[in-house]
Amino acid sequence: MSDQRPPLPPFTLETAIQKVRGAEDGWNSRDPQRVSLAYAVDSYWRNRSTFVQGREAIVAFLAGKWERELDYRLIKELWAFSGNRIAVRFAYEYHDDSGNWFRAYGNENWEFDENGLMQKRFASINDLPIKESERKFFWDRSGPRPADHPGLSDLGL
């Protein structure tokens, strides 16, 4: 049996918000192994036009992502929830190895198993080139967004 990853479905407003913030904090660690533990061992993803299945593939995908997307900082916001499903909107900022900055905008649909592990993730994402002076996400290089840092709605995103 898989380890449990609270909060467990069915979600309430409070537990859905906790799940979203937990996912945001995990991804901001930029640790592929750590992040993969939030997903079922046979989790299925669509990320843009890439399809990934299983924790091993998730680790490889995320390792490659964070080799290309440098100084990655992510903010997620709950959009909707019902039962064992959560929808989020998000934005993240990063730069490439040439120093070009981007803000990626997207939406994700998540489905969880009874243990609170994400079994399906569908992500639609668009990248917008930005100037470094247009950045909005500022906190330590790797780690969670501080509690006093504005969220997406507060930033007008």
Can you tell me about this structure?
This protein has 157 residues and is α+β, with helices and mostly antiparallel strands. The protein has a single domain (13-133, 151-155), classed as Nuclear Transport Factor 2, Chain: A, CATH 3.10.450. It has helices at residues 13-29, 32-36, 55-68; strands at 39-47, 50-53, 70-82, 85-95, 101-112, 118-130. The protein has a six-stranded mixed sheet. A hairpin with a 2-residue loop joins β1 (39-47) and β2 (50-53). It is globular. It starts with 12 loop residues before the first helix and ends in a 27-residue tail after the last strand.
Key words describing this protein structure:
157 residues; alpha+beta; Nuclear Transport Factor 2, Chain: A; six-stranded mixed beta sheet; 3 helices; 23% helix; NTF2-like_dom_sf; DUF1348; DUF1348 domain-containing protein
**Topology order in helix (H) and strand (E) letters:** HHEEHEEEE
DSSP summary, beta strand count? 6
Q: And the CATH topology?
A: Nuclear Transport Factor 2, Chain: A
Helix percentage range: 10-25%
Radius of gyration: 15 Å
Instruction: Note the main sheet.
Output: 6 strands, mixed
N-to-C terminal Cα separation, in Å?
Answer: 40 Å
Q: Give unreliable regions as ranges.
A: none
Mean pLDDT: 96
Which strand order spans the largest sheet, edge to edge or round the barrel? 2-1-6-5-4-3
User: How many structural domains are formed by the residues?
Assistant: 1
Note the quaternary state here: single chain
β-sheet strand percentage: 35-45%
Level-1 CATH class name:
Alpha Beta
Number of helices: 3
Going by helix content, strand content and strand pairing, the class is alpha+beta
Task: Examine the secondary-structure arrangement and name the CATH architecture.
Answer: Roll
